[in-house]
Design a protein that fits this description.
about 300 residues, alpha+beta, 3 domains, 7-stranded antiparallel sheet, 5-stranded antiparallel sheet, 8 helices, about 35% helix, about 30% strand
């Protein structure tokens, strides 16, 4: 199993053993939504149902937040409410007012909730207490915040903050495409986004397109900055670096896939987890280094 997106947090306070974490997560295991609930959060096994809530491999830990949510689109509610309002209009001789329509929609929602389709999704987090970081596999900050908030409620006495670097990703990526030398462990790929800082925030995107130095230089000279850039690390992992230090579209390249295929370990899940944590830990260290090191505000 490989994370597809990386949001990195510094563990400023973490005195939690795997056994303690297991015990506290198990107290907050996910339960099915009740008839009148729209959503419920809780912890699930990161590997498969019935196994521990904390998957460990050496000092590395993997946890998973489950989110069960009922799908009840506004269009469906409005359709039933409109029909109900028409019946009421016929009975009382005039259209329901704004307050009455609100009450109708609330009543319709309560009636439809028990029959709503339930969807469950998962958000994974890798905890590396040795390096003092936690990495959340989330494509957006809202899902990461959801997991962080639940973890803080579940586990007593922990503190973590988003990891920050001394030099912003935007500044560094812009300087690379402006002609500054790139660390030899990285290569630039063919996806890029540049955005102006003005009110219009005009944006130029390149997708699977050769980044011509002269063309890119014109955009930078015009005041645009690079907000995301596709890169490859050590011929092993490709990713897209974003302005907020998030890494997206993580993909292990053939050299790592060959290592996994040639492993003697019987458990493919553990093989992938060991390979992922080992390589991504080094990747993150190199990214932080080229961005001037970790900011003292988070270290």
């Amino acid at each position: 199993m490989w994370f597809k997106n990386l949001l990195v947090y510094r563990l400023n306070k973490w005195d939690v053993t795997p056994a303690i974490l297991e015990e506290q997560l198990s107290r907050n295991a996910i339960q099915a939504c009740s008839a009148m609930e729209m959503q419920r959060l809780g912890w699930v096994s990161p590997k498969e149902e019935g196994l521990p809530f904390v998957h460990t491999l050496g000092s590395q830990m993997l946890i998973c937040l489950g989110v069960e949510k009922k799908l009840l689109p506004t269009t469906v509610i409005n359709k039933f409410a409109k029909s109900r309002a028409a019946d009421i209009e016929e009975q009382q001789g005039y259209k329901p007012g704004r307050k009455q329509m609100k009450q109708i929609k609330e009543a319709v929602t309560d009636e439809l909730l028990p029959r709503a389709f339930v969807l469950r999704r998962h958000t994974f987090a890798w905890i590396n207490p040795t390096a003092g970081i936690m990495v959340v596999d989330a494509a957006n900050l809202a899902k990461a915040d959801e997991l962080i908030e639940m973890l803080i409620k579940t586990v007593d006495g922990i503190a973590l903050v988003p990891l920050k670097t001394n030099i912003s990703p935007t500044s560094t990526m812009t300087s690379w495409l402006a002609g500054d030398d790139l660390a030899s462990v990285f290569t630039v790929d063919r996806d890029c986004e540049l955005r102006a800082a003005g009110e219009e925030r005009s944006t130029v995107r390149y997708v699977r397109h050769t980044l011509e130095a002269e063309e890119i230089a014109k955009h930078i000279t015009a005041g645009k900055e690079v907000t995301r850039l596709a890169m490859t690390w050590g011929d092993k992992v490709s990713f897209v670096l974003h302005e907020n230090l998030q890494l997206k579209r993580i993909a292990a390249l053939d050299i790592l896939k060959d290592q996994a295929d040639g492993s003697d370990q019987e458990d493919i899940f553990d093989t992938d987890f060991a390979l992922m944590t080992g390589e991504l830990q080094r990747l993150l260290a190199d990214v932080v280094e080229v961005l001037g090191g970790e900011s003292a505000a988070t270290a």
